[in-house]
Design brief:
By secondary structure, this protein is of the alpha/beta class. It has 6 helices and 14 strands. The N and C termini lie far apart (107 Å).
């Protein structure tokens, strides 16, 4: 019992000392943690290398907009969360993957950046605006993307209105078009594709509601892709099958030639070609379609 009493007394003393130290720290902490030696400066903030498609200085924009320079102490319990929130709000930052605190007061952030996969073409008087979007339909800052890159991205046409920069486009046609542009990025240039044109209204088959997407080539051929996902009409081919049919079409026809290329290619349930001078579609039965 005597030894047990000693243990209890020792624990009580430790708890009392801990409480006392915590009380003292709470009183002196404000005057200590905000000393210059503990304050994070703009020069002490480092981020992962930005990709070539971003010309903006993301680091300095976050510092300026959030006021991080010499405001936050590395001793502050909320240090990591404040830095994370500041960068997560930037339109080009998809996610903050890791934050590493360093000494003297410094921090390094591993970031995943958003990548523009297409531009939404918005009518603006006599000219048009090209608004970049990522694969999830996030409106990205157009002024931060080189003009040559904007002009070479897939163009999504037939859209009205736009969300603020950094916000997601609340339009299923944009979501479908950006997902399609992302999946077709590897063949977009080689197949001479230029525009993605979603239908103005959704189609309904059984219990399925979806938009039909058309791909327009630089030669003017309209490729009826159909649904952006596999939730289209019954019997519509999956993405891989459609891509194989698109490949066959690109190999057989001059998609860049506005005079000899086909007018319409429907790849939803087969390879159905409509020549520019033909009045009826020509189904692919293994023979070469005649294009005049």
């Amino acid at each position: 019992l005597w030894q047990r009493g000693r243990v209890i007394v020792a624990l009580f003393v430790v708890a009392l000392l801990g409480w006392g130290m915590q009380t003292v720290w709470q009183q002196v902490a404000p005057s200590i943690i905000h000393r210059d030696r503990y304050l994070l400066t703009a020069d002490g903030i480092a981020i992962s290398t930005m990709p070539a498609w971003i010309t903006a200085d993301v680091r300095m924009e976050v510092v300026r907009n959030s006021g991080l320079d010499r405001r936050l102490s590395v001793l502050d319990e909320a240090f990591v969360s404040v830095v994370e929130d500041a960068f997560a709000l930037h339109p080009w930052v998809e996610s903050v993957d890791r934050i590493t605190k360093r000494s003297p007061p410094a921090v390094h952030l591993d970031l995943t950046y958003r990548r523009p996969v297409a531009v939404v073409e918005i009518a603006n008087g006599t000219s048009g605006l090209l608004l970049p979007v990522d694969k999830n339909g996030i409106h990205l800052p157009a002024s931060d993307v080189p003009a040559i890159r904007l002009n070479n991205l897939p163009r999504i046409s037939g859209i009205v209105g736009q969300p603020p920069t950094g916000q997601r486009w609340d339009d299923p046609r944009i979501i479908g078009a950006t997902a399609l542009a992302d999946r077709l990025s590897g063949v977009w240039q080689s197949y001479h594709l230029a525009n993605i044109l979603p239908s103005a209204r959704a189609e309904i088959h059984s219990d399925r509601r979806f938009f039909v997407f058309n791909l327009i080539t630089r030669g003017g051929t309209r490729i009826v892709w159909g649904s952006a996902t596999q939730k289209g009409a019954s019997g519509e081919a999956d993405f891989r099958t459609k891509l194989e049919r698109l490949k066959q079409c690109a190999e057989r026809f001059r998609l860049l030639d506005p005079a000899r290329g086909p007018a319409v290619v429907d790849i939803r349930r087969g390879l159905v070609i409509t020549p520019r001078t033909a009045k009826k579609p020509v189904p692919d039965d293994g023979t070469e379609a005649v294009v005049k």
